[in-house]
Structure formats: structure tokens, C-alpha cells
Amino acid sequence: MTKYILRRLLISIPVLFGVTVIAYFIMTLAPGDAVDMLVDPGLSPQDIALKRQALGLDQPVIVQYGRWLGQLVQGNLGYSFYNRRPVTERIGERLGATLTLAFMSLLFSYMVAIPIGVLAAVRQYSVWDYIATVFSFLGVSVPSFFFGLLLIYFFALKLDLFPTGGTHTIGAAFSLSDRLSHLILPVMVLSLQNTGAVMRYTRSSMLDVIHQDYIRAARAKGLRERVVLFRHALRNALIPVITLAGLQFPFLLGGAIITEQIFNWPGMGRLAVEAITQRDYPTIMGINLLAAIMVITGNLLADVLYGVVDPRIRYTEGG
Amino acid sequence: MTFYERISGQGGKNTPDETLLADVQRHPAVPMRVLIWRRFIRHRLAVVSSIVLLLIVVVAVAADVIAPYDPAFIDPLVFDEAPTPAHPLGTDRIGRDVLSRLIHGGRVSLSVGVVAVSIYMVIGTVLGALAGFYGGRVDTVISRLIDIVLSFPTLMLILVLVSLLGPGLQNIMLVLGLLGWPQVARIVRGEVLRLRTHDFVWAARMIGAPSRRIITHHILPNAMGPMLVAATFGVASAILSESALSFLGLGVQPPTASWGQMLNDAQSLTILESKPWLWIPPGLMILISVLSINFIGDSLRDALDPQLRR
């Protein structure tokens, strides 16, 4: 297992390298740069040239990239072109908000989806199954921003149950209930798609399991149906479902861009949009790199978790 | 009658040949496409979805005839109007008819989906087929490339590319088309790997068919099922991506209308609260189209399953 993980980690180094190369070159190909975005028109061409020189933007792309990579190896993500603050700091102060949102969404979608998925499998072709199927299709078909706007319209504006955005009431002292009420709508939006997917997954995995011989054996020896379903079937059915979490995490990060925009959530998604409009290369690169690392770790985690929970799966050196 | 009895000619009154003949007569040969069609129409939601989608497509194609006004026409006398008989969905803040924009927006949204997916189906099929067929170093390079592109959070990369090319209809199609191929390449690669050791491929090789012809005439037609399903789901997700980008203001630019772009104004809480007729209809149209396409894709997946049963 250790060998397998090590091998996978080694493979991911060239992949990450590729990600940074592609991201950097695409980014610098764009017409205009950070200096065009922040310089006021009163400056003389000399000043602009100086500014460009200070940011290293007068160098060829390959030199710029080399410098960036050199810093990265020393654990330095560089300084924001926009406000000269370290990129690690800029990302760091936003990361918490996004991770909170992502983890809560993951938790929420599993809590809703697993019971419904089980019900749909146990009562296959029943009304419940039908409703669950339609719901999961709705989940992947609703544009998340539209769902978010609907929630704000009904629950925040019309019924006034929840705030329309932000992470907490400005100026108020910290309170858990305040934080939670700000979390509910964004979490619902972000988890919508996952909930549908996890539900479908749970249903099909459960269906596979309940037709196995050991379930018939459990029934034959007279166990109560509840014990058979939850103790025997669900345990095994959940294996692939749980590993799905690792694969879903990156999608949550992507979805966070839209959700954070609608709910004014000060996370990495908003930072990304800001950085892109400001042509803030170091910040964009930092976010891209972090996101790519999360995607790769998520995938690896899913595979490793699969091996841990299912003893039949063994990773050999060859595979 | 068991299989053994049938082939040994024992147990029944008929000889094996007669039994087989009876079997064949009872289940006359049905062409594949009829079987697929039968399975498809058994999925009731998919049938309803097909009809709905057909309606949407017809309206989008005939937008010029159906729409009451020119979608870009600005009537300075009626801006910000609530629905009236003359403007059933009201007018937007500079006096354009919302219903007309909704009808024309459908054309834009649907064509983004179709064009983007066509672009990446071509790229994905070519790369996937090369990787699967030739294997070795070609496969390694292409597979790594797939890994790299899949390691980006897609929306993020789309945003970067759009800011590079500048927002606009053509660029959205191009960006979505250039980024969607890895999934298709994976599917095609898998199918080619599965098919290339089949006897009919050896047979084609033996009569001297060139690799190109083997791929295009022998392997790919057999991989059509999964490719078609991927394309269908792809159109749905491309429509969603376009609408999200346009909603953020990075996609289709006014005066051109797309459904997502019509929701852009609703980012302001006052419009959101006081003028629901501006943003609920386009949102619903996105939802209905994407949902229909997804149901059709689901039914196609069942219908095109190679383990076809009647």
C-alpha cells in the first residue's frame, strides 16, 4: 500500500508541473497585464515601464515562469500583483470560508442522499424510487445560480428566514446560530448536485448488494429485515459511496465560484474571479496550483480509501 | 425443454432443427435499431422529454417568425415594465421585450451546447482512438494530457481562457469545446481498447485494411453507443456552463440574449425581489431543456446497452 501511494504521488508531480506550465502560458498569452489593470492614466510611459520592470513583466514568459517555479520550490507562491501581499496570505484568509462551505455541503448531501438512496433501492420501482430518481435528475439539471436565486427570493426576501448573503451579521458579536443561518442557503445550493449523484450511487450500490447470496443467507437465518438491511447490506453498499467523496471535492471547489458569487461569500471562488479580472498572475497561479493539488489528493484518497474499506482490493506494485 | 434436450434431440417430439425453427418463428429477427427504438420509448420520461425538447428546438429555430419583437429592439417608451398584453413578460431595464429575448435566447443557448460538444467530440474521439489503438508511448502522452486537463477545476480554467479570449458567443463555444474533450477521449480510448482485440478487427487487418480504415470503419461504429450517450449528457452540461458564465457576465454579451445572460441582472437584490418575471422564465427554460436532455441521455444509455434484451 505504501509503495502504491508513493508511486501515485510520484506520478502526480509531472501532472502538477504540466498544470502550472499550461496555466502560466495561457494566462500570459492574454492581451493586457496587471499593470494595464491598475495603473491610472496620469502616469508617464516611463513610470509604467518601471512598474512593469518591478513586477518582472518586461521579461520573456519563459523567464517569468522560471522565476515563479524557482520561488515555488522554496515554498514561496510569490506576491500579489494587485496589492503586493504574499499570495499564501491572500489565499489563506479565504481558504477557511471555502472549506467550511465545501465540508458542510459534503456532509449535508450525504446525510440527505444516503437514506433516500437506500429507500429507493429497498422499495425499487415504488413511488419513492420514482421520486428519488426525478429528484436526482433535477439536482444535476438545475443551474446552481438559478436555484440560489430562487432560495434567496423565497427564503431570504419573501419569508425573511435567512440572510441573503455574507458569512455573519456585520458588527454583531460572534454567535454560532448567526453563522449557521448564513450557511444554510449556500450549503443547499452547493450540495444540490452532489446530493443527486450520491443518491443515484447509493441506490445502485444498494441494489447490487441486496441481491447477493449473503443477504439471502442473513434473511434465511431469520434476522429481522432492519438488521439485514442496515447491519449487513448498507455496510457493504456504502463502500463505493464513501469513496465518491474524494472525487467530489474538486467539483465543490468549482461550484463554490458560483455559490460564493451569489451569496457574497468571501471564499477562494470569489478571490479567483477577482484575481482573473485584475490579471493578478501570482494569485491565479496559486489558486490553480492549490486546486489541482486538491483534485489529485481527492482522487488518490478515493482510491486508497477504497482499498482500506474493502479488503478484497489490493494494490500491487504493477497496478 | 432444456438446452441439452434441445441439442441432443431428446425429450421433445420435435427434432432439434424443428425446435430451432419454431424458436426463430416465435421470435422473428428484429433489426437492431428497432430494438433500440422499442427500449427507448419504454422510458416514459424520455418520450415526454423528447417532445418537450423538440418544441423548444422548433421555437428556437423559428425564433424570427415567432418572437413578437426584435430581441435587440429598444423601445424607449416602455422600460422596466411589468407584464402587459403587449409585452407578456414585461420589458427589461432599457426597454427590450423579455419574451422575444427569451425566444431568441433559446437559440443561442442551444447552439452553444451543440457546437461546443461537436468540437470536443471530434478532438476527444481522435485522441482517444489514437491512444487506444496504438498504445505504448502515444497512449502515455495522451493519457497524461487527459490527467492534466482533468486536474484543473474546469470552471476556473474556463474563466481564465474566457478572460484571455474575451467574452462573447464564439469564444464561449470555442472554450467549452477545447476543454470538454478529456472525458470523451477516456471513453473512446476504453472502447477502442476493448474492441481492438476482437476477431473482426483481426479479420480486417488480415485482408490488409490500413489502420485508419480499421479505426474509422470497424472500431468506431461499434463504439457509437457510449459516444452518443456522452454527447447527449455533454450538451446538457455545456448549456449549464454557458448559462453560468453568462450569468457571471463573462459569457454572451448584450445585445445578444442567452438564457443565462438574462439572469445576470437578477444579481441585484432589488431586481431579484421586485421583478421576478425578468429572471424566473429564463431560469425555468434552462432547467427544462437541461432536464429533458438528461432524461433522453439516460434512456439512450439503457437503450444502447450492448446487452440488449427485448
What does this entry look like structurally?
The complex is a heterodimer of chains A (319) and B (310). With 319 residues, chain A is mainly alpha-helical. Chain A has twelve helices and no strands. Chain A is globular and about 85 Å long. In chain A, 37% of the residues are buried. In chain A, helix 5 (87-122) runs antiparallel to helix 6, helix 7 (144-158) crosses helix 8 (176-210) and helix 10 (225-263) runs parallel beside helix 11 (268-278). Chain A starts with a helix and ends in a 10-residue tail after the last helix. Chain B is built from 16 helices and no strands. In chain B, helix 13 packs antiparallel against helix 16 (276-303). Chain B is flat. Chain B starts with a helix and ends in a 7-residue tail after the last helix. Chain A binds chain B through residues 14-16, 18-19, 22-23, 26-27, 29-31, 134, 137-138, 140-146, 149-150, 152-153, 157-158, 164, 250, 253-255, 257-258, 261-262, 272-273, 276-277, 284, 287-288, 291-292, 295-296, and chain B through 45, 144-145, 147-148, 150-157, 159-161, 163-164, 236, 240, 243-244, 247-248, 260, 263, 266-267, 269, 272-273, 276, 279-280, 283, 286-287, 290-291, 294-295, 298.
Record keyword descriptors for this entry.
heterodimer, A: mainly alpha, MetI-like fold, B: 310 residues, 16 helices, flat, disordered N terminus
CATH superfamily of chain B: MetI-like
By helix and strand content of chain B, what is the structural category? mainly alpha
Structural class of chain A: mainly alpha
Number of strands of chain A: 0
Strand content of chain A: under 5%
Strand percentage of chain B, roughly? under 5%
**How would you sum up the global shape of chain A?**
globular
Gross morphology of chain B is flat
